[in-house]
Design a protein that fits this description.
- There is one protein chain.
- By secondary structure, the protein is mainly alpha-helical.
- It has 14 helices and no strands.
- The model is unreliable at about 40-60 (pLDDT under 50).
- It holds the Pfam family AI-2E_transport.
- Belongs to the autoinducer-2 exporter (AI-2E) (TC 2.A.86) family.
- Keywords: Cell membrane, Membrane, Transmembrane, Transmembrane helix, Transport.
C-alpha cells in the first residue's frame, strides 16, 4: 500500500503528457485544413498602417487592417505644380524674377539719388580722367615720375577749364550792357512789326501783355526770392561737386590701376576673369566716346561761332562756348544751344539775321551727324539712335542735366561689357565641351578655301 501514491502520481503525469500531445496534433490538423486566401494581382494603393496606442492591459500595439481585395482603388491626387499649365509656370517664374530685379533697381536708384552729388562728381571725374590719361602716359614716356606727371597733367587741365569758364563770364559781363540795349531795341522792333503785321495786333493788347507780365512778376516775388535762395544752394552744391571731382580725378590719374584691382577683389572668383577682361574694353569705349565728343563739340563751336560772328550777332564767343558745353548732351544739347543762338540773333539783329543763324546751325549739325560722328567715333561707340533718345530722356528725368550727360556713355559702356561677357561665356562653353569625334568631327573640320590645292584634290 505504500507504493500506491507513487504509481498514481506517475499515471497522472502520463495522462497529462498524452493530453498535451493530443492538443498539439489537433491544432496542427486545424492549421492544415484552413483555406489559403487568394492573392490579388495588384493590391490597391493604401496608406501605410499606423500603430495604435497600446491598451491598458499591456497588449501589443495593433495595426490598421488593410482594405479587402474587392474594395475599389482610389487614384492619388496629382502634385499641385504638375496641375498648372506649363506656360503659366514659365510666366510665374519669369514674373517673380522680374519683380526681384525691379525691386533691386528701385533700391539702387533710391540709394544713388540720396548721394546723387557724389555719384555725379565721380562720373565727371571718370570723364575728365579719360581725357587726361593719355597726357599722363605721354609724360611718363618722357621719363617723368608718375606723381609729377599726374600733378602736371591735373594742374594744366584744371587751369584750362578754369580759364574757359572765366573767359565766358568775362565776355558776358563785358557785353551785357550792349546786349541789354540791343534786346530793348529788338523788343521795340518786334512791337512795331506786330502792329504792322496782318495779325491785327493793337498797341493796347501789347500794353496789356506787358502789364500782365509785370503783375505776375510782382505777385510772385516770394517765389522768385525762394528760387534765388535755392539757386545759392545749387551754387554751393556745384562747388562741392567740383571739389569732389577734382580730388577723384587726381586719385584716378595716379592710382587708377590699383583702384581697378581693388574693385576686382569684390567680384566673385568665378566671374572675376570675365570682369577683368571687360574692364579694359569698357575703359577704351569710354575714352573713345569722350575724345570723339570733345572733338565734335569743338568743331561745332568753332564753325557756328565763326558763322554768327560774321553775321554780326553779339556775344559770338560766349555763344560758341555754350555750344561746346551743350554738345556733351546728345540731341538735346544741340537743339538748346542752336535755339539760344537764334533767339539772341532775333532780339538783337532781326528776323533775317535769325534765319541766317538758323541756316548755319542746321548745316553744321547735319555735317556733324552724317560726317563727323561716324568718322571720329567710328565703331568704338555704336549705339542705336533710339537707345540714345531713351537714355537721354531717362537720365534727364532721373538726375537732370548731369544724368543726361552721363546717360549715353553709360549705355555705350554697358553695351561693350555685355557684348564681351556674352562672347566670353560662349568661348568658355566651347572650351568645356567634349572634343568632336567620328562623324561629328566632319561638321567642325576646317574647310579649305576655294581654289586651294586641298580643295581641288591636288
Amino acid at each position: 500500500m505504500a507504493r500506491l501514491p507513487g504509481w498514481l502520481e506517475r499515471l497522472g503525469a502520463g495522462l497529462s503528457r498524452m493530453g498535451k500531445r493530443l492538443e498539439e496534433r489537433r491544432a496542427a490538423a486545424e492549421e492544415e485544413e484552413l483555406p489559403v486566401p487568394p492573392v490579388p494581382a495588384k493590391p490597391p494603393a493604401v496608406p501605410a498602417p499606423e500603430e495604435l496606442p497600446s491598451t491598458e492591459g499591456g497588449s501589443e500595439a495593433g495595426r490598421v487592417p488593410a482594405p479587402p481585395a474587392y474594395a475599389p482603388a482610389v487614384a492619388a491626387r496629382p502634385d499641385p505644380a504638375a496641375a498648372i499649365p506649363w506656360g503659366m509656370r514659365v510666366a510665374a517664374e519669369a514674373g517673380w524674377r522680374l519683380l526681384v530685379l525691379a525691386g533691386t533697381l528701385w533700391v539702387l536708384m533710391k540709394a544713388i539719388s540720396s548721394v546723387q552729388l557724389v555719384v555725379l562728381a565721380f562720373v565727371a571725374a571718370l570723364l575728365i580722367t579719360a581725357i587726361l590719361q593719355p597726357t599722363v602716359s605721354r609724360l611718363r614716356g618722357y621719363g617723368l615720375p608718375r606723381g609729377l606727371a599726374t600733378a602736371v597733367t591735373a594742374v594744366l587741365g584744371f587751369v584750362v577749364m578754369g580759364l574757359v569758364g572765366w573767359f565766358v563770364v568775362w565776355q558776358v559781363m563785358d557785353n551785357v550792357d550792349t546786349l541789354s540795349d540791343r534786346v530793348r531795341d529788338g523788343i521795340e522792333e518786334l512791337k512795331r512789326w506786330l502792329l504792322n503785321s496782318p495779325f491785327h495786333v493793337t498797341e493796347q493788347q501789347i500794353n496789356d501783355i506787358a502789364k500782365n507780365l509785370s503783375d505776375a512778376i510782382g505777385a510772385n516775388t516770394e517765389q522768385i526770392t525762394s528760387a534765388g535762395l535755392q539757386g545759392v544752394t545749387v551754387v554751393v552744391e556745384a562747388l562741392t561737386g567740383i571739389l569732389l571731382a577734382m580730388f577723384s580725378t587726381l586719385f584716378l590719374l595716379y592710382d587708377g590701376k590699383k583702384v581697378w584691382q581693388w574693385v576686382l577683389k569684390l567680384v566673385p572668383a568665378q566671374a572675376r576673369p570675365g570682369v577683368a577682361g571687360a574692364g579694359p574694353r569698357a575703359w577704351r569705349t569710354l575714352t573713345a566716346y569722350v575724345r570723339g565728343t570733345v572733338v565734335v563739340a569743338l568743331i561745332d563751336a568753332i564753325f557756328i561761332g565763326v558763322g554768327i560772328y560774321f553775321l554780326g550777332v553779339p556775344l559770338a564767343v560766349p555763344l560758341a562756348v555754350f555750344i561746346f558745353l551743350f554738345s556733351f548732351i546728345p540731341l538735346v544739347g544741340a537743339v538748346v544751344s542752336g535755339a539760344l543762338a537764334v533767339v539772341v540773333a532775333l532780339v538783337t539783329e532781326g528776323v533775317f539775321t535769325a534765319l541766317m543763324v538758323l541756316v548755319v546751325v542746321l548745316a553744321v549739325q547735319q555735317i556733324e551727324g552724317h560726317v563727323l560722328q561716324p568718322f571720329i567715333l567710328g565703331r568704338a561707340v555704336r549705339v542705336h539712335p533710339l537707345a540714345v533718345v531713351l537714355a537721354v530722356a531717362a537720365g534727364g528725368l532721373t538726375a537732370g542735366i548731369g544724368g543726361a550727360v552721363v546717360a549715353v556713355p553709360l549705355v555705350a559702356v554697358t553695351n561693350t561689357v555685355v557684348g564681351y561677357l556674352r562672347a566670353y561665356s560662349e568661348e568658355q562653353a566651347l572650351r568645356s565641351a567634349p572634343e568632336p569625334h567620328g562623324a561629328t568631327a566632319l561638321d567642325v573640320a576646317p574647310t579649305p578655301p576655294p581654289g586651294s590645292p586641298e580643295r581641288n584634290g591636288e
